[in-house]
TrEMBL record:
<feature type="transmembrane region" description="Helical">
    <location>
        <begin position="631"/>
        <end position="655"/>
    </location>
</feature>
<keyword id="KW-0547">Nucleotide-binding</keyword>
<keyword id="KW-0472">Membrane</keyword>
<dbReference type="GO" id="GO:0140359">
    <property type="term" value="F:ABC-type transporter activity"/>
</dbReference>
<dbReference type="Pfam" id="PF01061">
    <property type="entry name" value="ABC2_membrane"/>
</dbReference>
<dbReference type="GO" id="GO:0005524">
    <property type="term" value="F:ATP binding"/>
</dbReference>
<dbReference type="InterPro" id="IPR050352">
    <property type="entry name" value="ABCG_transporters"/>
</dbReference>
<keyword id="KW-0067">ATP-binding</keyword>
<feature type="transmembrane region" description="Helical">
    <location>
        <begin position="546"/>
        <end position="568"/>
    </location>
</feature>
<dbReference type="InterPro" id="IPR003593">
    <property type="entry name" value="AAA+_ATPase"/>
</dbReference>
<comment type="similarity">
    <text>Belongs to the ABC transporter superfamily. ABCG family. Eye pigment precursor importer (TC 3.A.1.204) subfamily.</text>
</comment>
<dbReference type="Pfam" id="PF19055">
    <property type="entry name" value="ABC2_membrane_7"/>
</dbReference>
<dbReference type="InterPro" id="IPR043926">
    <property type="entry name" value="ABCG_dom"/>
</dbReference>
<feature type="transmembrane region" description="Helical">
    <location>
        <begin position="481"/>
        <end position="506"/>
    </location>
</feature>
<feature type="transmembrane region" description="Helical">
    <location>
        <begin position="518"/>
        <end position="539"/>
    </location>
</feature>
<dbReference type="InterPro" id="IPR013525">
    <property type="entry name" value="ABC2_TM"/>
</dbReference>
<dbReference type="InterPro" id="IPR017871">
    <property type="entry name" value="ABC_transporter-like_CS"/>
</dbReference>
């Protein structure tokens, strides 16, 4: 991408503004009206994003071990002599300078990802690491983390947002509190230009293979753009071109090259790039069997391999040649390993290696690139609690509003089922047969509002867990803000649907004809639905698997419904199951509904053929072992269960967020 003139940039921004207004993106709280305040003059001030601080990354004599017997255990592999310990990286040293693009290459299993994880200090909990990683001569610290960006192989986006909306969301949470709204918007537009995303700025991101959206290359550039908002000095990209065709690969690497040209240090891993892409790398690091086979300028690698006795054939892609030469071919393991050892040994004695070692020793003198402040403590979040809340509520609402089919389906379900139930129990008579029917419909009302409520949320966290963990780890928002927003966004639906359902059933069936009783019935079904939703969140937060969540959701419901007071009289519950009664919100809801229905019924028809009759509503309540004295306790218990379930779900989510940081 060439650099646009400032006038061109200003023109582009003007176009963005017009389009944005029609697309409605500036309805985002905190973004409202700000795009409209941009002026071409202001845009002329900055046409490119220049990096604030130049950083030089060095790593020296890195050894990485993993305990193969206990891969999940932190700090495993203490005894390096046992065969159970795998030695993944063996004395890897190197340097990445500001303004350069370094590609880490090697065949599969060479150790590229392990090196990148070691350099970024991520996903290393199961590794035992030796050696030093430094930035401008200083050990990695939180301050350096905040100046670096790690673009992982799998892009994670909220598919329903447009490119511009995604960036505005990122800008509102990843930039310092003191940056004004106008400046954030300005930077978003600038980043869109810089990453060549103008064409698709108002296109929904989508999900490949599921919903239409932007292309694979645009997704990758959007991932870069998201990181660019924090103007990182150090950028790491894991396989940025995987799954892309050669033209998109070229495009993406050109973007990386451009980012480096602005003074950043860019390090990426890459698999067999086409030759014209390979030529774009300033430096390459070839890894083989966990050792360095070559590190230096990409154009000097051919000469090094020639000196080692391996000539790259003419018209052959040099990248393919290096990977092929350093690969361990099945069936020829011993020969290949000997060849790799020979090349790595030669590299260690080469001028390239000596030059790097010399630079590493000078790097401790900070290379004139400035000392880094080592700030510790303070909040890891750039945005305030309220800013996080507003941005997340906005995203949750957009998600819900742009997927009206989901709400419509739930509405239709509620209407159809309520009409069906209404017809089955239509205008039930207040006689001895009607008692069972009334009691049945009261229990059905609780259950039928509970089931959809649980099913609606049970997939919430497994579906969003990856994106939540990444954004939380990036310091975008706190777990409590995310959780509260999720709960609040679902709440209106958990109120509206039971309200509609109960309204239809109540009057069709002919439940107690009084507005007070009707409103209480609505309140109880709404409360029961919300306890169910909270219970759904507990299941949802307890697993990362969608299928497990769905299976687990229905498992505890059977006993809870069984001891809900309808199928078995509360006095007949076996003593060892009484505890289930106490946590069954179906039981509490059913008791309040029954008291509400029967308390004021003074006459129930009794014919001689009926035998023993319940003459009043109070008789019915006595036969069910229900008492109106329990109503306050029942409502309190349901509220308590709801709060308890929400708290438990939050704690489970908190544990997941802590685990993701380790
Ligand atoms: N947690 C682990 N436990 C045991 N072995 C591991 C672990 N992580 C990585 N390895 C091994 O270390 C070696 C290097 O893995 P790494 O993922 O870094 O390779 P890579 O070069 O990135 O491969 P690819 O290109 O296929 O992703 C591989 O042999 C791998 O099996």
């Amino acid at each position: 991408m060439g650099t646009r003139s400032s006038d061109e940039t200003a023109l582009l921004i003007d176009r963005h503004e017009n389009r944005s207004r029609t697309a409605g993106y500036n309805s985002i709280p905190g973004a409202a009206g700000s795009a409209g305040m941009l002026t071409a003059a202001r845009m002329r001030r900055r046409s490119t994003i220049i990096v604030d601080k130049r950083l030089q990354l060095t790593w020296e004599n890195i050894h990485v071990y993993v305990d193969s017997k206990d891969k999940g255990c932190c700090g495993g592999g203490k005894d390096k002599t046992t065969p159970a310990t795998t030695h993944i990286l063996r004395g890897v040293s190197g340097i990445a300078k500001s303004g350069t693009l370094l590609a880490i290459m090697g065949s599969s299993g060479a150790g590229k990802t392990t090196l990148l994880n070691t350099l970024t200090q991520r996903n290393c909990s199961q590794f035992d690491i030796e050696g030093a990683v430094k930035v401008n001569g200083q050990p990695w610290n939180r301050n350096i983390s905040s100046m670096s960006a790690y673009i992982q192989q799998n892009d994670l986006f909220v598919e329903i947002l447009t490119v511009r909306e995604h960036l505005i969301f990122q800008a509102s949470l990843r930039m310092d509190k003191h940056i004004t709204r106008d400046n954030r918007m300005e930077l978003v537009e600038e980043v869109i230009n810089e990453m060549g995303l103008s064409k698709c700025a108002d296109t929904r991101i989508g999900t490949p293979g599921r919903t239409t959206g932007i292309s694979g290359g645009e997704r990758k550039r959007l991932a870069f753009a998201s990181e660019l908002l924090t103007n990182p000095s150090l950028m790491f990209c894991d396989e940025p071109t995987s799954g892309l065709d050669s033209s998109m690969t070229h495009n993406v690497v050109a973007s990386l090259k451009q980012l480096a040209a602005k003074g950043r240090t860019v390090v990426c891993t890459i698999h067999q790039p086409p030759s014209e892409v390979f030529a774009m790398f300033d430096q390459i690091l070839l890894l083989a069997e966990g050792r360095v086979a070559y590190m230096g300028p990409s154009q000097n690698a051919v000469a090094f391999f020639h000196s080692a006795g391996y000539d790259c054939p003419k018209n052959f892609n040099p990248a393919d040649f290096y990977i092929y030469t350093l690969a361990i071919q099945p069936g020829y393991e011993e020969e290949c390993k000997a060849k790799v050892k020979d090349i790595c040994d030669r590299y260690q004695q080469s001028d390239h290696c000596t030059a790097i070692n010399n630079q590493l020793h000078h790097a401790d003198g900070h290379m004139g690139l400035g000392l880094l402040e080592n700030r510790s403590g303070g909040s890891p979040y750039k945005a305030s609690w309220w800013q996080q809340f507003v941005a997340l509520m906005w995203r949750c609402s957009v998600n819900a509003i742009r997927q009206p089919k989901i709400f419509t389906a739930r509405l239709v379900q509620a209407l159809v089922i309520s009409l069906l139930v209404g017809l089955v129990y239509l205008q039930t008579a207040y006689d001895q047969k009607g008692i069972q029917d009334f009691n049945g419909v009261l229990f059905v009302m609780i259950i039928q509002n509970a089931m959809p409520a649980i099913n609606a949320v049970v997939q919430t966290f497994p579906l969003e867990l990856d994106i939540f963990k990444r954004e939380h780890r990036n310091g975008m928002y706190r777990t409590d803000v995310y959780f509260i927003c999720k709960v609040l966004a679902e709440m209106p639906i958990s109120i509206i649907l039971p309200l509609i359902y109960t309204s239809v059933v109540y009057w069709m069936v002919g439940l107690y004809p009084g507005w007070k009783q009707y409103l209480i019935a609505v309140g109880v079904t709404v409360l029961a639905a919300n306890v169910s939703t909270a219970f759904g969140y507990v299941i949802s937060a307890s697993t990362s698997s969608l299928q497990t969540a769905v299976t687990l959701a229905n498992l505890p419901l059977v006993p809870l419904i069984l001891f809900g007071g309808f199928f078995i009289n509360t006095k007949s519950v076996p003593v060892y199951f009484i505890w289930l009664e106490y946590i069954s919100w179906f039981k509490y809801g059913n008791e309040v509904m029954a008291v509400n229905q029967w308390r004021d019924v003074t006459n129930i028809t009794c014919s001689p053929s009926d035998g023993a009759c319940a003459g009043t509503g109070m008789d019915v309540l006595r036969s069910l072992n229900y008492s109106e004295d329990n109503v306050i306790f029942d409502i309190g218990a349901m509220l308590g269960l709801m709060m308890g379930f929400l708290l438990l779900a939050f704690v489970l989510l908190l544990i997941r967020s802590y685990k993701s940081k380790s």
